[in-house]
Each structure stands twice: as C-alpha cells, then as structure tokens.
Input
Amino acid sequence: MLVELVIAVVMGLLFLGIHRKVIARIQGRPGPPIWQEILHTLKFSFKETWVPRTASTLLYVGIIAVAMGIWTAALYVVLAGGSILILFGIYMLHKMVEHGVGLSPGSPYAKFGGIRSVISASSEIPLFAVIGGIYFFTGSLMISDLVAYQADNGPLLLSILPAAIAMYLVILSKMHYGPFSIVEAKEIVSGYQTEHFGVWRAGLQIGDAIKTFVLLYAFVLIFVGQLGPVLLLVAMLALLVSLSFICAVSPMLSPYDSVTVQMVAICILVVWLGVLVVIG
Amino acid sequence: MASAGVAGEPFFALPFGDIVNYFTPYTAVLFGFALLFTLICILSRPEQQLDVVFGTDAYYAKGVTGKELRFRRFMSIACGCATMAAMVSGDVFNFTLFVSMVGVCIIGIVAAVKSRHVLDAAYNYGIIAIVATIPLFGGAAITLATTGTLSIWELSAMASGMPLIAKMLIIVGVMGEGIAPFYAAKAELFRAPGAPYVIMIHVSSLLMFLRVVEILLTV
Amino acid sequence: MEKWKVQTMTIAAFIVVIGAWAAGLVGLIGQGATAALLVVFFPVLCLGMMLWWTLGKGEDDLPFMGY
Output
C-alpha cells in the first residue's frame, strides 16, 4: 500500500507538470519540463523553514499534515472500492485545508485566499448532482459496485452524461490556473498559500499531487469502469489534457462571476438529470 | 443495515432502546475530522492578523486575547462537540437538535469579536439559521407522525421510510444552517481574527451537510 | 521546535509506516488498519524527513506585507 502511495505522489506531480506544459504549449510558450513540479517539491523541501511570528503554530503546521492525510485516505478509498460518499466528503473537507492554510499565518493575502475559498463553496454543489444521479441509476455508491455495474451495462459516462459533466466541473474547479481557481489568484500574491514556504509548501505540493491523481483516477473508475493499466493511464492523461485545454483558453473569472457560472451550470445539470429520471 | 450501499458496512453499533448509534466507515471519517479540529481549537493559540494601514506603509496587528479568547475558544469547542454528536447520532431528532445547536454556537464564536462588519454578518447569519430550524424540526415531526419512529436504523429497514416532504424539509433546514446558497454571510464571518475558532464555523456546517446526505439516502 | 524532537518524531513515524506496510503485506493486520496507520503517519514522516535538515535556527519573521 505504501508503493501505491509513492506512485500516486510521483504520478500526481508529473500530472501537474504535464498540466503546466500543455497550458504553455497552447498559449505558444515553451513551458517548463514536465518533471518541473517534482523538482519544485524537492527544491522546497531543502529550503530553510520556520513559522511566521504572527501564525497560529499548531494550525499552520497541522493543516499540512491534514492536507496530505485526507488525500492519502481518499486514495485508499478509491483503491479499496469504497463509498464515493467518503471520497466526496474528503473533497469537501479539502475546503478546510484551504481555510486553515489561508487563515493561520495572519497574512492579509493568505486571508483573502481563505475567504474566497468560502465564497467558492458553490463548487461543491455539483457533487450532489453526481451522487444523486449515480444513486438513482445504479442503486449503490460503492465504487466496487459501480465498476461491476459498468462491466454489465456499459460506461456510466454515456447513460448519465450530466452527472459526468458535474464531476468534470468539480475537478476543473480544483485545477491550478483554471477559470475557477480564485483562491490562488495572482492579485492576492499566491492566495491562500502565500505564507506557506519551504517544507510547508512542499507538503502542500505532495497533498496536491495525491489529490490530482485520486480525482482523475476516480473519474475514470466511476464513469468509464475498470481498465487495464495502460488504458487507465491513457484515459487519465486524456482527461487531464482536456482540463488543461479549458484552463489554457479561459480567463480566470472574478470571484462573484465564478460563483454565478458554477450555480447556473449546476441548475442546468440538475434539470437535465431530472429529465433523465423522468424518462428513465 | 440498508445503508451498506451508501456508506459502507457499519463496524460498530450501540443500541439505546430503538435508537441505535452506529459507526460506518463514512461517519467514522467525519467523526475523526470533527475530533481533530476540536483538538486544534483546544490546543492552538490564535494567530495575529496583520493589516496595512490604508494609504501608508504602516501595518498593525489584531489579536485575540483575555476574556474574548476564552469565550470564543469555549464556543468553538462546544460547536465541535455538537458536531461530533451529530456525526454519530442514530436518531433524526437528535441530529436536528445538534444541527440547530451548531447554528447557535457559530454565532457565539464570532459574537465576542469587536468588529461592526463581522457582527452585522453574524446577525444576518443568525436570522437565517434560526428561520432554518423551522423546516428542520418540522421534518423530524412529520417523520415521527407518519412512521411512528425517529430511529435511522428502524427507518432504513421500513419499506416506506421517511416521507419525501420530510426529507426535503430537513435538507432545506441543514442548508439554512450555512451551506450554499445560504453561506454569503458566513464568508464575512471569516474576516474575524482567531483562525482555529473561525474555521470551526465551516467545519461544522460542512460535516452537517455530509451527514445529512448519508441520512437521507439511508432512510 | 527543537531539532532532536523533529528527528525523534521522524524516526518514530518511519518505524510505524514501514511496520504497518510490512505487517499489512504479511497479513498481520487488516487492510483497514494499515490504511489508517499510513493516513496518520505518512504525512508526519514526509514533513519530518523534509524538516530534518531545513528547520530554521534563526529568528521568526513577519508575514509578507507587499512590495
């Protein structure tokens, strides 16, 4: 199980690097090499590290461990075929990491990132369209049951497309440089991560890497089904590149526009799901 | 139990008459998280917020000290305890009771902050939270009147289960306690200093929402 | 935090992580217990390993307040 965890960290960092590379190529820049995020994490972990004088020390340090811990837990839930309710619970708890990282140092920039992360809570609502849709059509929320269901009935991607789009939106709203990533916008320096430097930032990077890996893997498992290792990797990469493409061509929305766009998208998806339920 | 397909097989159950408190992998994760943040509230010192004096190079620090610190720490620990209780409760009425207690504690966490802006937001939040208790308890009352029980364990075994209107009322009630789309006032509460306590505001309402999804899919 | 505390914590976390992994492999403890131990101690091990050399000895600083 330790092996899977280390693979998830390395692959996740590589995915983040590919994300940057794809965005750069679409925008006509050379971009960093794809292993840049791995180098970043190593670099951060060798920087001299302390805690800012104004920070709430336990929260400042503890929240980094929480960030890594919750996504490790999410990885095991997906690997063991556990409930997607737990997976989505962990996704929502990641909000707490953003608040904690943002509010604990006492820096005004980090604080704005933390407050924006409260405003962007609307990005979690599509999750319930996903859960509701999947539960109505398959009668179970266990990933193992969903994989078995898809082996018999074909991918859920085709039968409940609105739920798949909702989950796609959910993943998109957590990608770096995306239209909804207002919590780390450059007008507030680095958003909620501003005051987490050195080892603390490396820890956040590791959490981020596992998060990216888990979310892409879960999307493929839930909506396409169990694939062989090579096909799985191809599917995850295709998903990632499509996300990077959206991030590259769309501007970052202002906080209130970001919330409005998400809300409108959710309403459309819920109505669409409702129509599917009535027909089915 | 019927919720095995939703939150995993329960690995522990503690019956009190027909009320059965239970731990599934799902509720155990939520309980653990509430416990972790309550411990952080107990052990952590609040941060000092730095702010720039507008139009100058000077900056000043806002801290939480003395009586204010003690009161806010107490309220956030109470909020954490109510959250933990709601996570393991096997009874719809207990759940609604703890949800409304969380609403009261959230106002308490920021009530001692000496900032007009934050207090205004707390007042707005309080109105919504208190109005939201009507559908919350209404849902529980309708459930009791139609099925004769409030035990989640028994309701999940019933063929008819909880009436749809009760489910909808309960979810509206929990949403009113502070999840989208009623969370605008809460974003303003986050401007108050005292990070460990302020975070408890969102921890509790997120966990409430995650638990209510499990309950409503189960019963 | 003093250096020896971080180093002790790291060694303890390393023993728990490797122990939980090995015990899980040979079937001494269940999958769930292995996962729970790794979830708690993997972050501690990561942070500890990185802090081993880099823990600052100098004066703490104020947060970044703009250019």
Summary: Residues 3-26 of chain C form the longest helix (24 residues). The CA atoms of residues 11 and 28 of chain C lie 22 Å apart. Chain C has a mean pLDDT of 81.
